[in-house]
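Q: What structure does this chain adopt?
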Amino acid sequence: MNDVQRTRREAFRGQAGGCDIVDAAAPSAVFNPEGLLVTIDVRTLVELVDPLRADPWGVGSISPEQVNAAFREGRLRRDNPAHNVKAVATSDAHAERIAWLIRHGWDRDIDVVQIDVNMHGGIAVNDGNHRVYALAFVGADGPITIDLSGFLDVAETVLDITIPLPVNP
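A:
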């Protein structure tokens, strides 16, 4: 890790409230009552879903410049524009949400990112797009927990993990 990445990571640790980015660990997977929780490195997830180029909200990709402008202008959005059915969610509204998350972090209760792997190895983030973008924006590294669904045999290859067989009591 270079000095710029280290500085960004330390700044993110200080700003991220309940989210604690720690040093990378080996990928792991475990079944629990909530589903299949997998721990992978943030950089792996960011590489696979490329949040800086993706368009998960159907408003066009969100540029880092939009997020920086939201910071400069103090436009930080606590609510998720994708969840507000009365308002039109724009790319600027999503940039404001990302800026808010970078500044304030998020609660551990929503720390898990939900992803689905399709039969061709494509990955869709079902819940957590703003958080993944925030992590990519600051150059975070370290482990992140994902709730994995979809084609698990393909996921093992794409994510470079071994998924244990569930144990029946």
